[in-house]
Amino acid sequence: MKSGKPVQAGAGVKPASAWVARRAYALLGRLVVLLARVYRRTAGEGTRRREEIVGRLAGWTRDAGLLAELKGCAWLHAASVGEVQLARPLLVRLAEARPDLPMLLTCNTATGLQLAAKSSATSARFFPFDAPPVMMRVLDALEPSLFVFVETEIWPCLLNELAHRQVPSAMVNARVSGESFPRYRRVRWLVGPALAGVNAVLARDRESADRLGSLGAVGVTVVGDLKQDGLAPAEVAATPDLLASAEGSLPVLVAGSTREGEEELLLSAFEGLRGRARLVMAPRHPERAAEVEGLLVRRGLRYKLLGEGDTGGDWEVLVVDTVGKLRGFFAAARGVFVGGSLVDKGGHNLLEPAAYATAICAGTHLDNVQHQSAALLAGDAIELVADAEALAAVWTGWVDDEKKAARAGEAARDVVRNSGGALDATMAVLEGLL
What we know:
Elements: H1 15-42, H2 48-56, H3 64-70, E1 74-77, H4 81-97, E2 103-107, H5 110-116, E3 123-126, H6 132-142, E4 146-150, H7 156-165, E5 169-174, H8 181-186, H9 188-196, E6 200-203, H10 206-215, E7 220-222, H11 233-238, E8 252-258, H12 263-270, E9 278-283, H13 289-299, E10 303-305, E11 317-319, E12 335-338, H14 351-354, E13 359-362, H15 370-378, E14 383-384, H16 388-400, H17 402-417, H18 422-433
Parallel strand pairs: 1-2, 1-4, 2-3, 4-5, 5-6, 6-7, 8-9, 8-12, 9-11, 10-11, 12-13, 13-14
Helix pairs in contact: 1-2, 1-9, 4-5, 4-18, 6-7, 7-9, 12-16, 16-17
């Protein structure tokens, strides 16, 4: 998508109201930090929650060796798994443009952090509490040369302080959905001044650009959806085939990024294909693997957890209970169902499996990926299903007709190849800021 004209900000927030809002937000942040420090002292050593609290208090700023590596870094923030996937090509391109530039990648979730740790970033950490005592210490320690946040991660304390210190910042793949827009408008007195200080706001679509402008962002530009750039061919080629060690010749179907309430529907759709196909199921949050196990046990399905070893063995369903492995099943799969779409979660990245020339289907709840689904529908490269019965029909068609599934996968890959451009446009802006 070509860059659009900048969208000017709407009416500004009154200075007095903005000052009061920032003070109230800062006081709330200080209270959260105080409670977190109390919890850190009372929680047991080694507990996952305590480790996260320690990370959010940015205890790593006391590590002189790490700070020496990160001084003057580009700081990228990605909320969770999906945003980390978007940030990874940016990290690669930034490293190519500035090989001397250290990079910090922060996340809000433990699963996101696991994936971030496998990226090319110099270091991956939990995002610090957005409160003055923590953020001031982090910024003093890092002295970052650039801050980049993916999608809609608006942290007022950090963004206001970056503007004060004249550290350039950019919001990339910026998106505000119709559902979330009213919530942001209600706190415009807080997010407006923070957005106004961001140097570059790169929106993925015109609707988001208009909404961000009305919230207070200045000079918003439409560059397209980073997800529509898909994966680079070299990255696709380098992805290990995790089905290479699978036994037998039955076709494999993949259900990726599945959500609570969705797995039951998927297993109902798979029921009629037992003995004719196998299923790889990857919950969006791997910690839900035990819940999925319970469903499999109740249905009497033979299953295996990927974390137990390779993909060998006599299984009907393989549960992906680790982060960062899903891509390894795409190339050899007969077809992929993209989750978060049979239940009302807005859907997940449809173009990632498309890059592997894999047939794609999804439910009808696709608010988060409307532009992707529209592109795939226009290219006759996706099947949309409303329920388990419709999904069973699509899966059966792929299992019965390998050539039909292959044609659908090739059409999906063509859509990816013809939909790029956002990454190049984003990189041009970031290099300019640096």
